[in-house]
Design goal:
The radius of gyration is 23 Å and the shape is globular. It has a 3-stranded parallel β-sheet, sandwiched between helices. A two-stranded antiparallel ribbon has the order 1-2. It is about 45% helix and about 10% strand. It is an alpha/beta fold.
Length: about 210
């Protein structure tokens, strides 16, 4: 099975992956991914079983213990204030069913990392306290993609593209733009080569037809 990956960065660092019939023309940008749970963050199996049973009774209860994500994800103090004042930004604890679904999906995807074969770039902050950089490294090492890059930025936090120090954000975006431009250039060269080959094949066929006459 081929995979197409839709990259997104949110405050939980979750990455969605969906199966597709082909990925020949797609690439992926992965920012602080969290679809693999590190051993340090993996809950005790007994706790997981208890939470699953509670999900059937009180799925919407906000009782999953978590730290204040805003304070550890966003380095810029002004960005923190902006997020806290945003009435549309959820700031409570995760609901039981939300945590259960994230756990289920994470464990499922962890078993299929070797199926990822499209070109991708992973960027991750070295001091990320929300998602584990080791998870990004595991994806990089497990994926069978031939064109893959993992960039770890020492000293940077979780929110690389929004909430980091301006100079750090500039560095990350510069790397992303460079990577995208390189892929666009390679595709353009490949397309031009294909068009040239098609044109040459047409000329050869035309010449063969005249010779036969």
């Amino acid at each position: 099975m081929e995979w197409t990956m839709k990259a997104m960065e949110n405050h939980q660092g979750f990455m969605a992956i969906s199966p597709a019939s082909t990925i020949s023309s797609e690439t992926a940008l992965i920012i602080t991914q969290a679809f693999v749970i590190s051993d340090d963050l993996r809950p005790n199996p007994l706790v997981v079983n208890v939470l699953k049973k509670l999900c059937r009774i009180i799925p919407t209860w906000k009782i999953i213990p978590t730290q204040d994500i805003i304070d550890v994800a966003f380095r810029d103090l002004e960005v923190r204030k902006e997020i806290r004042s945003n009435p549309y930004c959820y700031k409570g604890r995760p609901r039981l069913q939300t945590g259960n679904q994230l756990m289920t999906v994470s464990l499922h995807l962890e078993q299929r990392l070797q199926e990822v074969s499209l070109p991708f770039l992973i960027v991750h902050g070295g001091d990320d306290k929300v998602t584990d950089p080791a998870a990004s490294k595991l994806l990089f090492e497990s994926a069978r993609s031939e064109d893959k890059i993992f960039k770890l930025y020492p000293g940077m936090w979780h929110a690389l593209t929004y909430g980091e120090l301006p100079e750090n954000t500039d560095i990350v975006f510069a790397d992303i733009v460079l990577w995208l431009n390189d892929r666009v250039s390679m595709r353009m060269i490949s397309r031009l080569e294909s068009e040239q080959k098609f044109e040459n094949d047409g000329l050869l066929k035309g010449g063969s037809s005249k010779d036969s006459l």
